[in-house]
Give the backbone structure.
Amino acid sequence: MTVWQEDAARDLVLNVGDRLALLTRGEGSHVWDADEKRYLDFLAGIAVNSLGHAHPAFVEAVSQQAATLTHVSNYFATPPQLELAARLKRLAGAGIDGRAYFSNSGAEANEAAFKLARLHGGSERPRILALENAFHGRTMGSLAMTAKAAMRAPFEPMPGGVEHIAATIEALESAMDDRVAAIIVEPIQGEAGVVELPDGYLAAARSLTLKHGALLIIDEIQTGAGRTGEWFGYNHEGITPDAITLAKGIGGGFPIGALVTFGAASSLFTPGSHGSTFGGNPLGTAVANAVLTEIENAGLVENAARRGVQLRGVIEGLESPLIDEVRGRGLLIGVGLTAPVAGEVVAAAQQRGLIVNAANPTTVRIAPALTIGDAEIEEFQTLFTAALTEVQASSAASENEKVSL
Ligand SMILES: Cc1ncc(COP(=O)(O)O)c(C=O)c1O
């Protein structure tokens, strides 16, 4: 073990396994470790660093705002906070009635969404529907909406009322009734392995929730801020939800989350019903304004769409026997493998200087900065091909060994 590994093993809480490297700096789509080894970062902090690392617009916003006003309290408004609320309402199409609540993370945005559902449902509507394989966060309310039993079991009992249903229109039709307060869905289930909803699902969810008087809440924490080639995942289906939750990409690396409400759902929170000391502070909101402005001005939503198609083409063109299918949209891509070797592929990639992630044993997740161009895609192609070839060769060798035994 190196010194930093010993430090990590001794001092960091044991909620994750061994850390993969000691990263010390980043620039654009690259990061460097303490030994000055360079990595192409095609994970971007799990769909967070929309502008890549150390983007001048990000650096300028942090420095400027830190030197101006960092934190007040929610007793006061600040110009960056008001600007961000108006910007998110405009980008989300939340209309004049829309409102924004600011948090510091995705899970906290979903906690606010959970409370919104309760406020809407009251005692008449105790049911909240979420999807099988959903991931909505690790705090107790967001965990209750997260599906994975292994994540939930040690912390039971969960806050009540949440039911997980299959991600099919038929399952939703049969689950819906007038006792449902809300349904929460991710347009693409990122943590589950970049799994898309069936075509027409969001439109069906919209009409069923309207029919039964329930809220449609869309978790855009991983899919929002342009990642899928539209500002938000629901834009691909042209629907209007009652609320969306945001985090990750809107801050480009600064911790900030938001709940944006639409129409009547905007009147549910009343004074004293929710809050956060740090949420909506001028520093975080100024950075999010700068990140979203850059995404808009530099055409990065369009770039995510275009580069996403290009990247998929490259991956499909690799013709590796390990690749089964390519899923996702824009720059949120899941490479489905023919064998449960995603961990090996990720490790081989890292060894060669490429950061990607194993969302599950058969899926490599790719979520680079929205700024990538030809150079990054070419570098990715070289490194990913080499990683796949290595894993393919070692799988073939161990198959041969089994045969000869
Ligand atoms: C769809 C979705 N919701 C919620 C979360 C939780 O966000 P955070 O880790 O910022 O609490 C995540 C994080 O991966 C996510 O992908």
